[in-house]
Amino acid sequence: MPRIFDSHAHYEGEAFDPDRETLLPALFAQKGVVGIVNCGSDFATSKASIALAEQYPGLFAAAGVHPHEAAAAGAWNGEARRALTALLAHPKCVAVGEIGLDYHYDFSPREQQKAWFEGQLALAVELDMPVVVHDREAHEDTLTLLRRYRPKGVVHCFSGSVEMAREVLSLGLYIGLGGAVTFHNAKKPAAVAQMAPLDRLLLETDCPYMAPVPFRGQRCDSSMIAATAEKIAALRQMPVEELLAAAEANARRLFGLPPA
After folding, report:
1. What is the pTM of this model?
2. Which pLDDT tens digits describe the chain residue by residue (260 residues)?
3. What is the fold of 4-44+57-255?
4. What angle do CA 188, 112, 66 make, to 5 degrees?
5. Residues 6+ positions from 77 with CB-CB distance below 8 Å
6. Domain edges within the chain
7. Please, which residues bridge with residue 97 across strands?
């Protein structure tokens, strides 16, 4: 049985409404899943993530406002900061996330995205909590703010070059890799999977999205990390069990969790 730690999931989403209460127990009891960090995208989903974490010992929450939701969230101000701080105080909330920049969709004005990202980075540093960073086609601005605040954390679903990965690693951050590594045209993630130090890699799903080959097009869940791990282990020419063990240890270290 594999030991799977999914460092980035969204089980609070409507895609899991039909079977969430049967799926999650089965993942932990039957599929080798030993840990999940469920990431919020706004205040409502952050609260829902915390509520899920209260139900399952192996499930933990991250609370934050995603760049897609920055416009709807309004201004980053004292009220927003206090509301987020209250969520982050929950004992099963282990990170500030999912936060960052997304210039692919631009669902929120870029200046508003940056205001929320910067505010949440500053809060994370003040609270000494890790961040879960979303970066899509916003590499330069993302790196600028990460250099400025130097948080601990992970750049999830890493899509940058090997050169960017080296800079992210030099800042002390982790690299999160998911199903995209298995896609036939995924040259950058594959190259990053080969070069990243073993003690700085996290495995993730971003479920229900990004199901790896051979599950593409299906709803993703944490058990599918096994396929992603097999691909990365082959790229690194190492046993898959060793990769999974390292990824679990890395996640527990980053998020301040005890061994299971």
Report:
1. 0.98
2. 889 999 999 999 999 999 999 999 999 999 999 999 999 999 999 999 999 999 999 999 999 999 999 999 999 999 999 999 999 999 999 999 999 999 999 999 999 999 999 999 999 999 999 999 999 999 999 999 999 999 999 999 999 999 999 999 999 999 999 999 999 989 999 999 999 999 999 999 999 999 999 999 999 999 999 999 999 999 999 999 999 999 999 999 999 999 88
3. TIM Barrel (3.20.20)
4. 55
5. none
6. 4-44+57-255
7. 132
